[in-house]
Amino acid sequence: MTESELKELIVESGDIPGHIAIIMDGNGRWAEIRGRPRVFGHQHGMNAVRAVVEGCRELGCKALTLYAFSEENWKRPRSEIKVLMRLLRKYIEKEQNNLKKDGIKLRCLGRLGKIDAEPRKTLEEAVAYTADCNDMVLNLAISYGSRSEIVDAARYLCREAAAGRLDPESVDEYTFAGALYTSGLPDPDLLIRTSGEMRVSNFLLWQIAYTEIYITPILWPDFTKKDLFEAIGEFQKRDRRFGRVKSKK
Ligand code: IPE
Ligand code: IPE
Ligand code: MG
User: Fold this and answer.
1) Contact predicate 206/177, CB 8 Å
2) Among 50, 141, 189, 249, which lies 20 to 30 A Cα-Cα from 62?
3) pLDDT tens sequence across 74-114
4) Catalytic residue status for 73
5) How far away, in angstroms, is 26 Cα from ligand 3 center?
6) Active-site residue, from 27, 47, 73, 202
C-alpha cells in the first residue's frame, strides 16, 4: 500500500489519535551500521522529525510529543551532547516559520535550566513566537525525565499548600495532572518507540497510564510518514477497554 492509500484508509476509519508521543530511538545504531559516528545518525534523525510533524498535521492530530533528550542523556559524552544541542537549535531556527505558518504551537517539556544559554534562548524564543498558534501542539521533551516531572509537580503543590492557596485534601488526579509539564493536554492515545527497545525510559510515566504502545524495530532516521500512518492503522485496530469489559464493535 502506498503512503497516500494508507492515509486515506486511516482517515476514513475516523479514529485519529488526538495525542501521539514518540520515543525517537536508534540514531546511534543507524550510524554504527554505516560505519559512521553516532552524531551522523542524529543529523539524519532530523528528517524523520520533519516527516512526523507534517504527518500529524495532515491528519489533524492535535498534539505530538517528541522525546528529544532525556535527563539521563546528560550522562553521554560532552561532544555528543554538544552536537545534539546544535542540531536542536538548527531544527528550531529552520522550522519555526513553518510551525507558525501551520498553526503549530511549540512547547518544551523538561528541566530547561540545565540547557546551555544559547540553545535555551532559541527554544524560548520559538515558544514565544508560536504561542498564539492553536491548530496543533508540538511538545519537545528536552532534558526531560518523567520522575523529575512528577517530583516538580509534587513540590509545586506542596508550596501552594504551604502558602495556604491549596487545600491538600482537594488534590486529586486532575489537580496533579495540571501541575505536570503537560498541563492542559490530553494524555497520549498512542506511544510509538522506534529501534525495538521494549521500555519507556522515563518518558511520560503518569500520562501513559492507558496509552496504546506501538514498538517498531525501525531505527529513528529511517522512520517515515508512511511508518507513522502504519502505526496509526495498528492503533485503530486496538480495543481500548480502560478496565471495562470488551466493547462490542
Ligand atoms: C536516540 O538515539 C536519540 C537520543 C537519545 C538523543 P540514540 O542516540 O539513543 O541511538 P541508539 O539507541 O544508541 O542507537
Ligand atoms: C530514550 O532513548 C531517550 C530519547 C529517545 C531521547 P535512550 O536511548 O536514551 O534510552 P535507553 O538508554 O535505551 O533506555
Ligand atoms: Mg537509544
Assistant:
1) yes
2) 249
3) 999 999 999 999 999 999 999 999 999 999 999 999 999 99
4) yes
5) 5
6) 73
* Closest ligand 1 atom to Cα of 30: 14
| 121 in contact with ligand 2, CB cutoff 6 A | no
Q: What is the DSSP string of 56-93?
A: HHHHT-SEEEEEEEESGGGGS-HHHHHHHHHHHHHHHH
Whether the pTM exceeds 0.90: the reply is yes
Residues in the ligand 1 pocket, defined by CB under 6 Å: 24-29, 69, 73, 84, 195, 220
Cell reading at 94:
529552520
How do the domains of the chain map onto residue ranges? 16-236
Entry field: residues in the chain: 249
Fold of 16-236: Undecaprenyl pyrophosphate synthetase (3.40.1180)
Grid cell, residue 3, equals 503512503
- Asked if 25 is an active-site residue, the reply is yes
Whole-number CA gyration radius for the chain:
19
Provide the pLDDT confidence category of residue 180 given band limits of 50, 70 and 90. Answer: very high
* Single-letter amino acid code for the residue at 86: R
Sign of the CA dihedral with 129 first, then 132, 133, and 137 last: positive
Distance between terminal CA atoms of the chain? 25
CB half-sphere exposure, 163, CA atoms < 13 A = 7
Q: To test ligand 2's pocket by mutation, which of 142, 201, 215 has the most ligand atoms within 8 angstroms of CB?
A: 201
